[in-house]
Design goal:
- The protein is of the alpha+beta class and 314 residues long.
- The protein folds into two domains: 1-157; 167-310, Heat Shock Protein 90, CATH 3.30.565.10.
- 61% of the residues lie in helices and 12% in strands.
- It has helices at 2-41, 47-123, 128-157, 171-185, 207-224, 280-290, and strands at 167-170, 191-196, 202-205, 231-236, 243-247, 294-299, 305-310.
- The strands form two sheets. A five-stranded mixed β-sheet has the order 2-4-5-7-6, covered by helices on one side. It has a two-stranded antiparallel sheet with strand order 1-3.
- A hairpin with a 5-residue loop joins strand 6 (294-299) and strand 7.
- Helix 2 runs antiparallel to helix 3 and helix 4 crosses helix 5 (207-224).
- The longest helix has 77 residues, at 47-123.
Length: 314
């Protein structure tokens, strides 16, 4: 909003300046031309009068040229700045519109599955197995709805000054527990965990935020991985900075897209075939940066993407 108001104010200033300058230039040129004409056509003009007229004309031309150059530079700068602001605003609006559409779809789908399961249970007299299946459908929809709402709430929470609640936690235990929790909620997924180095390393940070970060990375990896492959989680505590790698064997992410995927609401062109809101990886990036850690993406050998987090050294 502020950028838009500044752009409009600058545009009005430039437009006013253009009008006043044009009016001044026209008046000055006409006046100078008239004086020079009178000096040249006057009866028996003296050399001094003619020289003065010519000198005045030269000064006028130089002044107009200098003003024209300054004005042109200011005008070009103003137009360029306005254009950048307008493009940025339009880009943000487009992403937020896509986000709202994605959120609407993401919320409607689990709600529809929950409603269908409840209606089926209400209409039909199902036996134990069928009834359990419908309850599992409803539970799955509820968990999915909860995850999407949680992403939205956490995205809002991260904007608060006291967003992080820091305390020491065991990084090895944290990774194992989070992967176990993820598999419990997603039993159809395949995740392998590998530890390199000694256990018991304590890190300072918000464990729940880190849990949200890792779960989002696992969800992202599972979403793009072929059904017959496993997502690998590798924790290496032998280096100066503990390193966590989440490795998938999906289509991968091109180098020019690797920074963009961390932007809020951004989705890759291929993502139209996948569910999502474009918030998950943005939350990951925010959580990592707020802890003073680093995250980057590399290519997985044989195809896929590897998300690497380097925790700050204690």
């Amino acid at each position: 909003m502020k950028g838009g108001r500044r752009a409009r104010a600058l545009f009005l200033v430039l437009a006013t300046y253009v009008f006043l300058q044009l009016a001044w230039w026209v008046n000055l040129l006409i006046s100078s031309a008239a004086k020079l004409f009178e000096a040249r056509t006057a009866f028996n003009p003296s050399p001094d009068v003619l020289a003065a007229a010519l000198q005045n004309w030269e000064k006028t031309v130089l002044m107009v040229a200098a003003e024209g150059v300054i004005f042109s530079l200011l005008f070009m700068f103003g137009l360029s700045w306005i254009w950048r602001v307008m493009r940025a605003d339009n880009y943000i609006l487009a992403r937020e519109r896509n986000f709202l559409l994605a959120v609407t779809h993401e919320l409607k789908t689990p709600i529809a599955s929950i409603r269908l399961a409840i209606d089926t249970l209400k209409r039909l007299d199902l036996d134990g197995a069928d009834r359990d299946e419908m309850l599992d459908v409803a539970r799955s929809g509820t968990l999915r709805l909860e995850r999407r709402v949680e992403d939205i709430l956490q995205a809002t929470r991260l904007n608060l000054p006291d967003a992080l609640v820091r305390s020491p936690f065991d990084i090895t235990e944290f990774v194992e527990d989070t992967a176990s929790t993820f598999l419990h909620l997603n039993p159809e997924s395949s995740v392998s965990v590998k530890m390199i180095g000694d256990s018991g390393l304590l890190l300072q940070g918000d464990e729940e935020m880190w849990r949200l970060c890792l779960i989002n990375l696992l969800e992202n990896a599972i979403k793009y991985s072929p059904s017959h492959t496993s997502v690998e989680v590798v924790l290496d505590t032998t280096t100066k900075k503990p390193r966590l790698s989440i490795i998938d064997h999906g289509p991968g992410i091109s180098p020019d897209e690797r920074k963009k995927v961390f932007e809020a609401f951004y989705r890759l062109p291929r993502d139209k075939d996948f569910e999502g809101t474009g918030l998950g990886l943005h939350l990951v990036f925010r959580i990592v940066k707020m802890h003073g850690a680093e995250i980057h993406i590399t290519s997985t050998a044989g195809g896929g993407a590897t998300f690497v987090i380097d925790w700050p050294a204690n």
